[in-house]
Design brief:
Elements lengths: L1 E2 L10 E5 L5 E5 L9 E6 L4 E6 L15 E5 L4 E5 L12 E5 L4 E5 L10 E4 L5 E4 L13 E5 L4 E2 L17 E4 L5 E4 L19 E5 L4 E4 L11 E5 L2 E5 L11 E5 L9 E10 L2 E3 L4 E12 L2 E9 L4 E6 L4 E4 L2 E9 L4 E10 L3 E10 L11 E9 L7 E6 L2 E3 L4 E8 L6 E4 L2 E2 L1 E6 L2 E6 L6 E8 L5 E11 L5 E6 L2 E3 L4 E8 L6 E8 L5 E6 L1 E7 L2 E6 L7 E7 L5 E11 L5 E3 L5 E4 L3 E2 L3 E11 L10 E6 L8 E7 L8 E9 L6 E9 L14 E9 L1
Parallel strand pairs: 1-5, 22-30, 32-39, 41-48, 51-57
Antiparallel strand pairs: 2-3, 3-4, 4-5, 6-7, 7-8, 8-9, 10-11, 11-12, 12-13, 14-15, 15-16, 16-17, 18-19, 19-20, 21-23, 23-28, 24-27, 24-29, 25-28, 26-27, 29-30, 31-33, 33-37, 34-35, 34-38, 36-37, 38-39, 40-42, 42-46, 43-44, 43-47, 45-46, 47-48, 49-52, 50-52, 52-55, 53-54, 53-56, 56-57
Length: 694
């Protein structure tokens, strides 16, 4: 390479952008190993290097910096530099914007947690996200993620968009295969930087499933590796360099990645609301429809068909691409990008009294991986006389602990000035009303119970939300059960813990006895420990636990705890099981009309049995429950070979000639003849409600 000398070993991550002439460049930032404060700029078209001296000043990092993460936004020609370790071993929470055209920096809002040796990336909607890293020498290795919005210069709460990583990790390689499918490869779990076995690098790779919204394990590395770089080329994920105590350093290897080429499919979802839900006949009200696209591809030719209840007519749509016919309201919404949402508001009236259900369906021309979220309904109650009494729609939060006051928010309608709010028979203080919102304070010291919440207007009219708020005591938690009750030890497993008197900050622990060590106790504190409410806690069981049946212990921050004996079983990953998830029974096309001939398919998932390959798995398809009644057999299909921790697809055809419009329950039975010895046969049945349109 011509020009100035190429950068020394171990300069920081690159910034990809364009110079003042629009030519592509790569900018490298100095760290302590590079022994300088110059920017190294590589000009791709001319294959040359140049240096740009930096002088310390306001609004820029104090170089050199180690362990800084760089996320490049080529569309806006800006790079975002986050965190890092300074020369005096201080780990920072800083975020800077770097502009390749001017070689200048801008200081942005800091992260919630200092971190270095982490990774960062840009999302499809233009946000900057960070993951993992360390918060100091000898400090905590992080499993948290956090995203930054450049449009508002704000960070969301940690773990909001991408959750916790499966394990705390620093020094991992990162690459993106399709939009928002982020791969993290290798890395280290050691508390300090080091080489050799003390670095404790890992074999793992995992990626963010942008459809399932979870971190999923991918292929294992041939040997542990940390501090590598990664990129995707022609559908394959390449690793370059890195440190490994059990293999060569500065290596080049590659992993074939399923999904490096984006599938052309779009998960359309639909939600529907009626406002107000209670209204007098011949009085205008509004239906609101939200149509979204979970991706991964653009959804084109998006349509909504709204089937109006008897007596309801449309008076005013807010979308010009909508047409109304007798009983049906149809909207052509065009294209929706991944993560995008379109809104339709329909003003209507009813001439009939009583409860009416309005149903709608949304679809596009792209294959839809999950049809269960394409149908939505809104219920309205039409009265003869106008409604003047208060109506309560919701009370949040729905619970509190009686050692401190709790502020509740009541949403609804017809709230009048001077109203009162009762919790059971007790009138609440500090009530504030703002149109359809009421804030009130539930006092401390109430007896534990579930209470009705009532709103009483000054004219005496009232509404009551029955059993709307639960008061918990500052006592021991109680455990009712967990789901699932078992999992294999080759991957982490998220569990939902049900009980009562859980407090924010509660921690779940598994405790068992190792028989090979003469009854030696074995305990592990679970990760995650996400507090949903006083009745639900979500935790993650780590992988590689000994196959045992464990007691579950939940400990509140005040030290009070509960034990659920023999609650969770860790299964040896060599035990094979076939299963399906919600959405794994589907049709192609998703939007079906009477007279069509369609494909019915089932996705078969495999866990365990890590030393064998299944040649094929049979699947039987039915209309109606095959375990009861008189189901109609659609047909049979068979998957191809299914590797360990892989999936297969079985399909058959369904001729809808002569089938009247309506809703039909489809069933698929995996391995109906029990040819595969499985750990659990109860998860082999999939269901799907098929909507056949006229």
């Amino acid at each position: 390479m011509a020009g100035q000398p190429a950068p020394p070993y171990a300069t920081n991550q690159p910034c990809y952008g364009s110079d003042a002439g629009g030519n592509p460049v790569v900018v490298l930032f100095p760290n302590t190993a590079s022994t300088g404060t110059d920017l190294h700029i590589y000009h791709i078209l001319s294959d040359t290097w140049t240096l740009f001296p930096l002088s310390a000043g306001a609004g820029m990092p104090t170089f050199p910096v180690d362990g800084m993460a760089v996320a490049a936004d080529p569309a806006n020609n800006v790079c975002y530099l986050s965190g890092g370790e300074s020369t005096d071993a201080i780990y920072t929470d800083t975020l800077y914007a770097f502009f390749p055209v001017s070689h200048t920096f801008t200081t942005l809002s800091p992260m919630s947690t200092p971190r270095a040796y982490h990774t960062s990336w840009m999302t499809s909607d233009g946000r900057v996200c960070v993951a993992g890293g360390s918060n100091g020498i000898g400090g905590t290795i992080l499993d948290s993620t956090q995203c930054y919005d450049p449009g508002t210069d704000t960070w969301e709460a940690e773990n909001t968009s991408f959750g916790h990583l499966p394990v705390p990790l620093w020094g991992m390689a990162q690459a993106q295969t399709v939009p928002d499918e982020v791969w993290l490869i290798g890395g280290s779990m050691a508390p300090d930087y080091g080489t050799g076995p003390s670095a404790n690098p890992v074999l793992d790779s995992f990626f963010w499933d942008s459809i399932g919204l979870t971190w999923t394990y991918g292929a294992a590395l041939p040997y542990p590796l940390s501090l590598a770089s990664a990129d995707v080329q022609n559908g394959e994920l390449y690793l370059m360099g890195g440190v490994s105590p059990w293999g060569p350093e500065n290596i080049h290897q590659r992993l074939r990645v399923c999904g490096a080429q984006a599938p052309v499919e779009a998960d359309i979802w639909l939600q529907k609301y009626a406002n107000p839900p209670v209204v007098a006949v011949n009085t205008p009200f509004t239906y609101t429809l939200e149509v979204g696209n979970n991706g991964p591809s653009w959804a084109n030719n998006v349509m909504v068909e709204d089937y109006l209840p008897p007596g309801v007519t449309v008076t005013l749509p807010t979308v010009p691409m909508c047409t109304a016919q007798t009983g049906v309201f149809t909207c052509t919404l065009g294209s929706i990008p991944p993560g995008g949402v379109a809104y339709v508001q329909v003003q209507a009236t009813s001439v009939l009294t009583g409860v009416q259900l309005n149903q709608a369906v949304a679809y596009s021309t792209e294959p839809d991986p999950d049809g269960s979220n394409n149908v939505a309904a809104a219920q309205s109650y039409f009265t003869r006389q106008p409604v003047t009494a208060p109506l309560i729609f919701d009370v949040t939060p729905s619970e509190g602990v009686n050692i401190s006051p709790t502020v509740i928010t009541i949403t609804g309608m017809n709230f009048q000035a001077g109203l009162t709010v009762n919790l059971g028979s007790q009138s609440l203080a500090h009530v504030r009303r703002n149109s359809g919102l009421i804030n009130a304070i539930v006092p401390a010291g109430l007896p534990p119970d579930t209470y009705d919440v009532s709103v009483i207007n000054p004219d005496g009219q009232f509404d009551t939300a029955v059993q709307a708020f639960t008061v918990y005591a500052d006592t021991n938690p109680h455990l009712y059960g967990i789901f699932p009750e078992e999992g294999t030890n080759d991957v982490p497993t998220a569990i939902i813990i049900a009980g009562e008197n859980f407090a924010p900050g509660a921690v779940a622990v598994l405790s068992g006895t190792l028989p090979v060590k003469a009854g030696a106790p074995f305990t592990v504190t679970l990760s995650g420990n996400y507090f949903v409410n006083g009745n639900v806690l979500i935790s993650v069981v780590p992988k590689n636990l000994p196959p045992l049946t464990y007691d579950l212990i939940v400990v509140n921050p005040n030290g009070k705890y509960a034990v659920l004996p023999q609650a969770y079983t860790v299964i040896d990953a060599a035990s094979l099981d076939l299963y399906g998830r919600h959405g794994d029974l589907w049709t192609d096309p998703h939007t079906v009309r009477a007279g069509d001939t369609i494909t019915v398919g089932a996705t078969v998932r495999r866990t365990g049995g890590l030393s064998t390959t299944l040649s094929n798995v049979d699947v039987a398809f039915y209309i109606g429950d095959p375990s009861s009644g008189t189901p109609i057999t659609i047909g049979f299909g068979s998957t191809g070979p299914i590797l360990p921790r892989d999936i297969g697809v079985a399909t058959t055809t369904l001729d809808l000639t002569g089938v009247p419009p309506g809703f039909y329950d489809l069933y698929a039975v995996i391995d109906p003849a029990d040819q595969v010895a499985e750990l659990d046969e109860s998860n082999n049945i999939l269901t799907y409600t098929l909507a056949v349109l006229p």
